[in-house]
Amino acid sequence: MSLKVITANRLREGDVVYLTDSGRWSTHLNESRTGSNESVIEEMLAQAGADVAARRIVAPYAFEVVEVDGILQPLSAREMIRAAGPTVRADYRDTASQESGLKQTSQAA
Amino acid sequence: MYRYDEFDLAFVQQRVKQFRGQVERRLAGELSEDEFKPLRLMNGLYLQLHAYMLRVAVPYGTLSSHQMRKLASIARDYDRGYGHFTTRQNIQYNWPQLHDVPDILDELSSVEMHAIQTSGNCIRNVTADHFAGAAGDEIEDPRIYAEIIRQWSSLHPEFSFLPRKFKIAITGAPNDRAAVRFHDIGLQIRRNEAGEVGFEVIVGGGLGRTPVIGTTIRKFLPKQHLLSYLEAILRVYNQLGRRDNLFKARIKILVKQTGAEAFKDLVEDEWLHIKDGALTLPSEEIAHIEAYFAPPAFETLEANQPAFEARRFEDQEFARWVRSNVTPHKAPGYACVTISLKPEGGAPGDARAAQMEVVADLAERLSFDEIRVSHEQNLVLPHVRLSDLAEVWETLEADGLGTPNVGLVSDIIACPGLDYCNLANARSIPVAQRLTQRFSDLKRQHEIGDLKIKISGCINACGHHHVGHIGILGVDKKGEEFYQITLGGSADENAAVGKIIGPAFSYDDVVDAVDSIVTTYLELRRDGERFNDTLARLGQAPFKEKLYAAA
């Protein structure tokens, strides 16, 4: 079976997060706990459900990844963008104030 | 401009207070997400791909400089320093945090703004011609009626749980800049043979997975009956519209299934019950609202301004900007300025806080304090003296807002797409960015002339791809982004839905594909022929031949 991880958003802030081995939620995909069989993924989703009830996160779900040289990579474009941020301008990705981002650095070409 | 009366103000403030309580209860665990979701959506708050997204209403696209400054400060204080102007003349913030949203709404209410009617199955924020009150071809200012419709529709108890969302657009000019044939209801202000002013009523238009050009069900509706007639349409839809299938719930499906004639009869029957009743608009009430939109105190000016003409003659760059971004105004000596939010490599519709402030300052000083948001994701200074145009242009230029491309190939509409949206299948903005880079040569752009490219990242068609001269639709093929191209659409008075030209292109190939189509057009067009004219004359074959030749 394929490898899956669990993602959600932080309820209060909305940040994209991933369930880790320690049971905490990280903003880094690569810190995700992976599951490769149905029962593990169900257990992870149950844990996510408990964290929904505890008002830590919202809207959890599982998605597929592959491990390449120790780095977790999503299979779909959607999850790649969700993990890395919008591809439209590099200066949109930071969390700091963006007023310095005068130069439009397209990542698209 | 419309100003809140005591009812509006009390109502909006009460809503903010309610929502503050709802957010507190959500964070305290008293409301589940299932309970909270419809409440947040009623206040324009979505959960998108990366974060929450707040959609703020800009009723009929009109803003004061004071309001624009507030939008800028919210972008800076609560978001990432920018906002995104949408095809429904609204603004979206892509990164608000849930616990801040009540404060954001509070700030908005201080400048008579809110996020009501920007989401959910209700009558959405009414859109209008962005040159309203300024255009030379206008019969009457459509915003008067847009505001009347807003007052009638805001939290209308009967229409708060419609089968699906409901969009109304209105234009006061024969040249349709509001896409009235692609809305659930489109209203076109008309003058009848007796010289009276009323509305042509168009129903059942829309884009999405089933694009439909609206049907006129009434050629002339006298003004006093506007609300009773709209109510009759909404009642028929509310009763008969499908609620069992999300994809068949819009009024366009009902009109198609019922047949336009039969639908019209149903509306007219319903109308007989309520016509001349409580919803009749007294002329005093129309006059009362009209006063809010009274034209500003235009000076009496010469239509010909020698200093402006001289500058235009001497300065080619200025002349080029005037040619694409400046539109005639009804008052002699004035013009409408469209500020392009489509710089080369930029995200269509995005503006940084500092840019919003530049626009606000210009509006306050040189455009009677008025700003418009266009459905093509640009901003407009509607009332600028010809003699001030050079100063406006220089100021805009200095802040990255002077791109001379309005209506040209790089003035692209694009939905947020897979970079932001939870529903998208493919990215839209980076495709637009690459196209603006490909067509960066302004001389070539002006040679190509009027050509509209519109991009949607999924079949919901928020980027209006069906009505682009060249439309691009992002699709998902096994997790990979592909793009289907349509040709020949049009959103104006020559409404048309584009037709698919052939197999879809990969993310890497789509820019070359568009370039090939434009090149074919340039080779084949006759003098003065616009893209859709050439396409109509020759059909898709020559475009297709070139496009798929290499494959």
Can you put this structure into words, describing what you see?
The complex is a heterodimer of chains A (109) and B (551). Chain A has 109 residues and is an alpha+beta fold. Chain A has helices at 38-53, 77-84, and strands spanning 3-10, 16-19, 25-26, 57-68, 71-74. Chain A has one domain. In chain A, strands 3-2-1-4-5 form a five-stranded antiparallel sheet, covered by helices on one side. The longest helix of chain A has 16 residues, at 38-53. Chain B is an alpha+beta fold. Chain B contains 18 helices and 21 strands. In chain B, the strands form four sheets. In chain B, strands 16, 17, 18, 19, 20 and 21 form a six-stranded mixed sheet that branches. A five-stranded antiparallel sheet of chain B has the order 1-2-5-4-13. A five-stranded antiparallel sheet of chain B has the order 3-14-15-12-11. Chain B is globular. In chain B, 54% of the residues are buried. The chains are: A alpha+beta (109), B alpha+beta (551). Chains A and B meet through α2 of A and α14 of B.
Provide a compact summary of the structure.
The complex is a heterodimer of chains A (109) and B (551). Chain A is an alpha+beta fold and 109 residues long.
Name the features:
heterodimer; A: alpha+beta; five-stranded antiparallel sheet; 2 helices; 5 strands; 28% strand; globular; disordered C terminus; B: 551 residues; alpha+beta; Sulfite Reductase Hemoprotein, domain 2; Sulfite Reductase Hemoprotein, domain 1; six-stranded mixed sheet; 18 helices
